[in-house]
Amino acid sequence: MKFRIAPGSALIVACSLSLTACSTYSVQMGWPPIHKKAKPAPEAVNELNLVNTDGSPANFPQYWKRNTLVIDLSGISASGNVAARLPEETTWPVRVAVRVRPGSVGQIEIQGEERNVLPVATEGTQPIDLEFAPSVYTPKTAAIYISWGPMPAFVEAAQEPAQGTPEFVSPTELPKPRTEATPDGSASDIVAPAEAQPGQVSPPPGS
Predict the structure, then answer these.
(1) Rounded to 5 degrees, what are φ and ψ at 166?
(2) C-alpha torsion 135→139→141→142, nearest 10
(3) Given phi > 0 = left and psi -120 to 50 = alpha, else beta, which region is 176?
(4) Exposure on the CB side of residue 48, measured as CA atoms within 13 A
(5) Element (H, E) at 17
(6) CA neighbor of 44 nearest in space, from 70, 5, 80, 15
(7) Which end of the chain has the least Cβ crowding within 10 Å, N or C?
(8) pLDDT(59) > 70
(9) Straight-line distance from the first to the last Cα atom of the chain, in angstroms, rounded to the nearest whole number
(10) How many whole angstroms separate alpha carbon 62 and alpha carbon 141?
(11) What predicted TM-score, i.e. pTM, was given to this entire model?
(12) Between 110 and 184, where is the model more confident?
C-alpha cells in the first residue's frame, strides 16, 4: 500500500529538515547557536554633577529608564552621602530615582526643597529603583543631597511626672492631714479644732 503526503505536510517536513541541517552545520563549524539576542545594557549618561562631601567628583553611573533618570547606588553600603548638582542652563528631569540593592542600607534620605526618606527593602536579589517624591525639587533646584545609612532605632523614653502636679486623690477617700515644715526642717501636724487648748479662739471665716 502506498501513502501520499499532502502538499502542505511536505512543506512542513522540508522546513524542519532544513532547520535541523542548519543547526547541525553551525555546531560542526563552531558557530554560536541561533537564539534571541540579549537585551543591550543601558548607556551611561552624565545629566547631573555628582559631588562628594570633600568636593571631589563622585563616580556613580547615571542611566535613563524611559523618562526617569536613575542614579546607580547599587554599590553602596554602611553610610555616606553625595550631592547631585544641576548643571547650568539645564532643568531637572521629570523623574529621578536611585538604584540600590536590597539589604545594602536601611534607608535613603533625600534633601531638597523638602525631605524625603525612602526605606530600602531587606529581601530580594535584584536591584530596585526608588523614585524621589515630586515635591523634593523644582525644575530649577540647585542641588539635591542624598545620604544613606541604617534605619534609626527609636526608643521611647519613660515619661516622668511633671513637677508641681498635684497628687491624685480619689473622691471616695477622706483628705489626709496636711503637714507644714517647722524651722528645724521637721514636719508638724496641723492641730485640729477639737484638739485646740482652751482659750485659743479660732479666727472667724474669711479673716
Answers:
(1) -65, 145
(2) 150
(3) beta
(4) 34
(5) helix 7-28
(6) 70
(7) N
(8) yes
(9) 139
(10) 19
(11) 0.59
(12) 110
Per the rule left: phi > 0, alpha: psi between -120 and 50, beta: everything else, 172 is alpha
Strands (E), the chain: 44-45, 49-51, 62-65, 68-72, 80-85, 95-100, 107-111, 115-119, 128-131, 143-149, 179-181, 187-189
C-alpha cell at 206: 474669711
DSSP 8-state assignment for residue 57 = B
Query: Rounded to an integer, what is the distance from CA 170 to the centroid of its chain?
Result: 48
Q: What is the pLDDT of residues 87-131, one digit of tens each?
A: 999 999 999 999 999 999 999 999 999 999 999 999 999 999 999
Closest to 137 (Cα-Cα) out of 108, 94, 98, 83: 94
Q: Which set of grid coordinates corresponds to residue 53? A: 562631601
Q: What is the average pLDDT score of the chain?
A: 78
Asked whether the beta carbons of 98 and 70 are under 8 A apart, the reply is yes
140: phi then psi, degrees, rounded to nearest 5: -110, 10
Residue-level pLDDT at 80: 96
Per the model's pLDDT, the better-predicted residue between 37 and 175 turns out to be 37
pLDDT mean over 20-28: 51
Three-state SS at 10: helix
